[in-house]
Amino acid sequence: MKSFRGQALSWTLNNGVVELALHREPCNEIGSLTLDELEQFAANLDSFSDRAHALIIYSEMKPGFCAGADLRELFSRSQELEPSEAVDGVRAYLERIHRVMNTIDASPLTTIAATHGVTFGGGFELALVCDLIIADRMTRFCFPELRLGLIPGFGGIPRLKRDLGNAVVRDLLLTGRSFNTAKLQQVGLVSQVVGEGESLRVARSTAAQLGKFDRRTAVAAKKFIKPIPYEELGREIDIFCELFVQPAVEAALKKFAESEDAQPYLP
Amino acid sequence: MTASDQTLEQILNLAAAHFKVPREKLTPDDDFFKTLGIDSLQALDLLTRLEHHFRIELPDYELQGVSDFRTLADRIQARL
After folding, report:
1. Predicted ipTM?
2. A253 burial class (0-12, 13-18, 19+ CB within 10 angstroms)?
3. With contacts defined as CB-CB under 8 Å, which chain A residues touch B45?
4. Which pLDDT score, from 0 to 100, does residue A75 have?
């Protein structure tokens, strides 16, 4: 499918570049609707490989790239189930999102996350599956999961460990503070920091450059330097599910879900 | 003018310019959420602008409970 317009996301293929646009109000929270459409995208990704060389993921929503998992939906669904069923449901949801993330991570296309604003939790994890992060200077990256008594569940820790020194990973994870682009470029995670509103334009310019290279070589290079940490990704799901049953998590999710703040994930 | 006063002045100027509020309407002890009419997302935007302007890192937990310009300036000054 060369193009698709869904409720949470859309994609187009033009001149060898696939653009995946996220556009779910308010800030691309990843719930069942987004996951369904991400799965459709992942199922089509292979079919692009003979016609495309690059993928750009970006957000059309003003607050940011993506605020992460839809915690309000997660809470309401878990309340409808017995605790053991709720954990099974969470595991199934995580396994589905991991399959999507792993598919994008392993794609033969060169992948670029063009970020701005809030890039938190699962949104940060979506950026981390990409080969390059091109960040608007107002992007903020954060793993706030420990505030809820959880760890990131969409593959964030294993992918951060793949790309960064362990001390930076601990800082992000254990303090839950948000990092600006200067900090994440300094530690080597962000490829380019660009002016406000410029990340998509620069991502397109970068994608055009990537198209000049021999695809077979580019694919071989990516495969060589970007291993996917499958074992650790599996462990992450196990740990997340162990933590999910804690009463403190339910209380924190309840507080989050019932907050009247439009952005309860903010510090 | 002390270094702290200079920091405070720069914050007031930056906030007034970015949020399009007349500079003379801002005073050091104002609650910036109310005076600037901003929400938590815009406060995060202000934090990012201040970090870039002063070339510092200011962890968001340092700003918990901070809502006036003077205390904000003190937090920033401590990192300069």
Report:
1. 0.89
2. buried
3. 117, 138
4. 86
